[in-house]
Structure formats: C-alpha cells, structure tokens
TrEMBL record:
Protein name as annotated: Cadherin-6
Domain Cadherin: 19-99, 100-208, 209-323, 324-428, 428-529
Transmembrane segments: 542-570
Subcellular location: Cell junction, Adherens junction; Cell membrane
Keyword Ribosomal protein appears in the UniProt entry: no
Annotated organism of origin: Cyprinus carpio carpio
Gene Ontology cellular-component terms listed: adherens junction; catenin complex
Primary subcellular site in the record, as a coarse category: other
Protein's membrane topology: Single-pass type I membrane protein
Length: 727
C-alpha cells in the first residue's frame, strides 16, 4: 500500500507496511530494499513503518522505487513475496524563477512607434508546473517606465513611449521581474536587466552654427589652394551624418569653389580662379549643405538642408607686372637697317600703386645680341643685320620689372619672324660630272642642269639659264621648268688637243631685285664606244700624250715594287743587327767626351761622366746635353752625389746580366761588360749637367777660385759672366 506525505518531512512515517502473514506475535521482521533504502528511507523491522531519514527535494528526484518483504525472525524465511511500491514526492514552491541571461542587450531604432518589439526575455521555475501554481510565472517591469513595457505572460519588451530621440538619450536600462504563484502574494521572484540602445536614423537635418562666415586669403593664392573650412552640425551618426556642400549663388561663384571632405565632413573653400585685389576686395558665395542619405519616413521633420553666406576677403600682394598679351609676334624684313623699331612691348603694374615699368631682353634668349629694347617704353629695335637664310624665327624673352622693386619681374615670349628678301643668287643644285665623247655629234645632249636658291619667294622659284658669252663648242637650252640642257655645237672633240672645257653658265631668278650668278660647268673629253658609253677620260689621255705605253706603265710599277722590297729587307737586317751582344770590347761605349773649348782639369777631372744616368737608361738619350760648348745655365747649388749608395748600380748590373743570359743572340762564350763608376770623394763633386735644372739661380761662383789652378780658367769665365749679367 502507498501513502503520501509532505516532501520536506524528515523521520515522519508516511507509509505503514503490514503483511497478511503477520500474526502480531512479534515473529515478523520487515526488510526494505531499492532506491535510497537504508540511506534516505528506513523501515521499522517490527511495525513495518517506513520513515524518511533526509529532507526530500522533488527538483532533485521526483520518485523512488522500493521493495519491502516480511521475514520470519525465527526461521528467516519470507512470509510472502516481496512487494514493490513507488514513493512519489509532492512539489512545494521552494524554487524562485531564474532568467536565461543575467543581462540582456537589445537595440531598437529611435523614433519607433509605440508597441515596437524590443526583445523577449525568458525565465524558468524548477517547481512542478503540473502541480499547483508553483511554476506559473508572471513578468513585470520594475525599472524602465514609461519608455518600455513587458507582456506579463510572454516576457516580450516593447516600446511604450513615442518619439524616443537618440540625440536626446541613447541608452536605457530596464529591469524585468518574473514571479511564480501567478504573481500572487507569497510567490518567489527573479529579475534580469535589459540594456536597450537606440540606433540612429536620419531624423536630424544638418545645420550651420552661423548664418555667415568670414574668411580671407591673399590675392596671389594659387588655383586649388585652400581658403578655409566650414562645417555643419548633424546629430546623426554614420552614413546618416554624411553631408555634401555646394555653392548655389553669389558674386564669387566664378572665383571660389567648395569641396566636401568625406573624412571630416567639412566644406573646404578653394580658389577656382585667380583673385584680384585691385578689381574686387570681397567675394561672396552662398553655400548649401544637404544629407547624402535621406530617409523618406522622416521628411516631415523639415528640409534636410541648410545654407550659409561665405565672405572671402582678398588681401593685397605686391604683384609683378602684367603684359598686355600672353605673347608678342612681330615681322621684319631681313634687309631692315639697324636701329629700326620692329614693335613695342607693353606691361603695367597691376597693384594700386601703379609703379613705372622697366624692360629688358633676357640675354640667354638672344645670344647674338641682335635686338635691343628701350627700358622705358618697351620699343624693340634691330642692332645687327638679319639673315633669313640663317634663321627664319627668333624667339626671345622680354623681362618687365617694377622700378621700385626689381624682384617683381614678369616674362613674356616674343616671336620675331624674319621675312625673305631676294638677296641670294641661284646656283647649281649639285656638282655635275659632265663629259663629252670624242665622237659626239653636233646638237647632242650631254648634261641636264638645275639650280637652287636659298631665298623663298611667295610665288615660287623661276630660274633663267644662259651662257655668259657665245661658246663655239657648247650651247644651252632653257627648258623653262628650272632646268636647262647643255648641247654640243660641233662634233669631233679630241682629248689630246683639249681634255677639259670650262663652260660659264649664268643663272638668274625672277624675283625683285633680280639676282644672278655664274657657275662654271666642267666638261671632260672622254673616249666612248659606238653607243656613247664612256671608256676612259682625262687621266688616260694625259698619259697617252706623254708617250707612255701600257708596257712602260707595267715596267714602272715593277721598279717601284722592287724598291719597296729592298727597303723592307734593309729594315729587317737593321733590326737583327741590333741584337748583337751588349759589350763587344773592353771599352765602355757610353763614355762621353766633354769639351769646354778650354783646358780642363787634366787627369784629375774624374767627374766628366755622371754614372747617375745609368739609373734610367731608357731616357739617357733624351736627357743628354751638349758639353762641347759653354753651358748657358749654371746650377750653383751643391747637390749630393747621386751614387752615395750603390744599390741602383747593383740592380742595373744584375738586370743587364739577366738580359745577356737570356738573349738568344748573345755569343756562346763569356763576355766582359765594364760600367764606369765615378767616386764620391771629390770635393768638387760632379761637373756633369745630366741632372741639372732648367732654371738658373742667383748665386756667386767665387768658390771656384778655391778649387786650385785647374779650375782658374773656369772660375774666371763664370765669375766674369756673372759680373757682366749683374752690370
């Protein structure tokens, strides 16, 4: 049998078991088994009463399955089969509602209508929903009124106030309560927080902070340079706050422009056209700002644009002179005399001061100094003769500067076109190589000529060809197309009698004044075949007139060839002769004889040869000086002997020894090479001039008198020479 009792009861009998076999004499013993037997539940062995030993919690376990059986204490045998029964725990309201999240986050567009869904919150109750009202929940709002409301049964949060403006308040905290027992008194409750953020909509039009703005810039500001920045205020954010600026009106609309900075949403005022302080001091424009992204649901809130007046003041700058034209073009005849004016350059000071202007030609553009400009009135004159055939155009630059401030300077290009004058005579178009055959007939064409003229007449060239005088051999025929034909007047030319004819041709043009020149046409007499093809001309004719036959010419060429072979052979033998041994005798072939045209020091003069020249044998010949005359330049300084150390001589001798050992032309026997070496013990040292300088110092030579009678004549000669020079 089963009996229910309160789930929170502990130690209270809620089931009494009684076996039919129990006679009440105390011989029956009850045993309990199953879920929680001996731990949560226990049974009285004598009476069969079932007790709970712990507090029961339905939310942890709602029912238990147990088995009870009666045994005979004496025999230990079961009195009857085991009986299974279920203990079911009845629910009481001991759990408060709990929300699924401690904090909810929600967002809703600003200006939403009343009843707009915001978020749905959910709470759960661990009590038994099928038993009583312990798990029946009711939602209510504790904080967040009057802006939001919550549906009691569903927990849906909605907008409760219209026209909620994000620009006024952006975030809200709403506290929602869930209470069981259907919200009745004594029910348990739980709460949660909902953070609601109003998202932006484009409900705020841009507005300028001021109706007018004042800016300033220098009149010299470059096109595209920034004058200033303005910005309209927009309470929205993101793309709803993006704005665009434009100029809609104003007298400065032609000179100023506005650009939208997409990063800062500022309007940047820039120079569109050069400002001029002297013509206009203040430039006014009307600027309009609008939202680039507009929401049609909020157009009723007013026009989403605003306007403001921008006044830009131009500040004065000392400007350079301004020319009347961006460039000047003048024309002048090439025969215009010097000193004639060809045109005038005009410029002025654009500043209010109107300082006078001075002009000059940039000499880098007129390197030949052909022109001059008056520094005051800007008149350009010619100072050298012009020649169109040398240059048809002259491009110069004229500089204009303020007299009080030369640094303020402007430049203008001046193009001067040199007009043609017929001052050049026509001449042959090319160098003609004309010949006439010996067997030519009278009236036969031998050459067609044409002409060129460096002039450039307007109607084109028209040349006239003629002969300077009557010629018995040739005549000319003008084709009237700037060409002419040269014809023979007779037949039977003989190159032995005349090998070359010179025909003067007069060429005239048709321009004014008429120019003409005489060009000479050289005509050679040649031998031709029957068809008129040239075979040989003047050189062969001259050789034949000298009586030289073909055999004689061949003999001359053979003689020349033999002479060339002899010269080559002689040069080869001479080179081979140079390969002889270095020393062919015991005498030193490099000994020098020095003659001073007077008696020397005799045998004691051991310094006649300076062995120092052996240090550079390759320049001995180029550095040798004559010693058979009195030296014109003396070197009074006492230089040390070049052979104080013998290392150079030793290296030289070793080098020569190696050359002789490796020379294939050297004799196959030992040879002796002697090299003289002058000592360094002489008090006079060396008298050699091999290493003398090229200049003469101012020194005295009295010390030569102290060297003994051997140097008396030499001392008298130099001392007397020094005295004569001093006088």
């Amino acid at each position: 049998m089963r009996m229910a009792c309160s789930q929170k009861s502990t130690g209270v009998c809620f089931v009494k078991l009684r076996s039919d076999k129990d006679r009440g004499d105390g011989t029956a013993r009850y045993v309990l088994s199953g879920e929680g037997a001996g731990i949560i539940f226990r049974i009285d062995e004598k009476s069969g009463d079932l007790h709970a030993t712990q507090r029961l919690d339905r939310e942890e376990k709602a029912s238990y399955t147990l088995q009870a059986q009666a045994f005979n204490k004496i025999t230990g045998l079961p009195l009857e089969p085991a009986t299974e029964f279920i203990v079911k725990i009845h629910d009481i309201n001991d759990n408060e509602p709990k929300f699924t999240k401690a904090v909810y986050t929600a967002s809703v567009p600003e200006m939403s209508d009343v009843g707009t869904f915001v978020i749905e919150v959910n709470a759960t109750d661990a009590d038994d929903a099928t038993y009583g009202n312990s798990a029946k929940l009711v939602y209510s709002i504790l904080q967040g009124q009057p802006y939001f409301s919550v549906e009691p049964e569903t927990g849906i949060v909605r907008i409760a106030l219209s026209n909620m403006d994000r620009e006024v308040r952006k975030e809200y905290q709403v506290i929602i309560q869930a209470k069981d027992m259907a919200g009745q008194m004594g029910g348990l409750s739980g709460t949660t927080m909902v953070n609601v953020t109003l998202t932006d909509v484009n409900d705020s039009p841009p507005r300028f902070a001021y109706s007018s703005y004042h800016l300033s810039t220098y009149e010299s500001a470059e096109i595209g340079s920034t004058v200033g920045r303005i910005k309209a205020n927009d309470g929205d954010e993101g793309e709803n706050a993006e704005m665009k600026y434009r100029i809609v009106d104003g007298d400065g609309k032609e000179y100023l422009d506005i650009i939208t900075d997409e990063i800062t949403q500022e309007g940047v005022i820039v120079v569109k056209k050069k400002l001029d302080y002297e013509s206009k001091r203040v430039y006014t424009v009307k600027v309009e700002v609008t939202n680039t992204h507009q929401d049609p649901n909020f157009t009723v809130l007013g026009p989403f644009l605003d306007t403001a007046i921008i006044k830009v003041t131009a500040k004065d700058v000392d400007e350079p002179p301004v020319f009347s034209r961006p460039q000047f073009v003048f024309e002048v005849n090439e025969d215009t005399p010097k000193g004639i004016a060809i045109g005038t350059i005009t410029a002025w000071d654009p500043d209010a001061t109107h300082y006078p202007i001075q002009y000059a030609i940039d000499q880098h553009t007129d390197p030949e100094r052909l022109y001059h400009i008056d520094p005051k009135n800007g008149s350009i004159t010619i100072i050298k003769s012009l020649d169109r055939e040398v240059s048809k155009w002259h491009n110069i630059s004229v500089l204009a500067s303020e007299m009080n401030n030369p640094h303020q300077r402007s430049r203008v290009p001046v193009l001067i076109k040199v007009l043609d004058v017929n001052d050049n005579a026509p001449e042959f178009a090319m160098i003609y190589e004309t010949f006439v055959c010996e067997n030519v007939r009278a009236g036969q064409l031998i050459q067609t000529i044409s002409a060129i003229d460096t002039d450039d007449p307007l109607v084109g060239h028209k040349f006239v060809f003629s002969l300077s005088s009557m010629n018995p051999n040739f005549t000319i025929f003008d084709n009237e197309d700037n060409t002419a034909r040269i014809l023979t007047r007779r037949s039977g030319f003989n190159r032995r009698e005349m090998s070359v004819y010179y025909l003067p041709v007069v060429i005239s043009d048709s321009d004014y004044p008429i120019q003409s020149s005489t060009s000479t046409l050289t005509i050679r007499v040649c031998s031709c075949d029957a068809t008129g093809n040239m075979r040989s001309c003047s050189v062969d004719a001259l050789l034949l007139s000298a009586g030289l036959s073909t055999g004689a010419l061949v003999a001359i060429l053979l003689c020349v060839l033999i002479l060339l072979m002899i010269v080559v052979l002689f040069s080869a033998l001479k080179k081979q002769r140079r390969k002889e041994p270095l020393i062919i005798s015991k005498e030193d072939i490099r000994d020098n004889v020095v003659s001073y045209n007077d008696e020397g020091g005799g045998e004691e003069d051991t310094q006649a040869f300076d062995i120092g020249t052996l240090r550079h044998p390759e320049v001995v010949e180029s550095n040798q000086l004559r010693r058979d005359i009195i030296p014109e330049m003396l070197f009074p300084y006492h230089r040390p002997s070049p052979m104080k150390e013998c290392a150079d001589v030793r290296d030289f001798i070793i080098s020569r020894l190696q050359e002789n050992d490796t020379d294939p032309s050297a004799p196959p026997y030992d040879s002796l090479a002697t090299y003289a070496y002058e000592g360094n013990g002489s008090i006079a040292e060396s008298l050699s001039s091999l290493e003398s300088s090229a200049t003469e110092g101012d020194h005295e030579y009295d010390y030569l008198s102290n060297w003994g009678p051997q140097f008396k004549k030499l001392a008298d000669m130099y001392i007397s020479k020094d005295t004569g020079v001093a006088n």
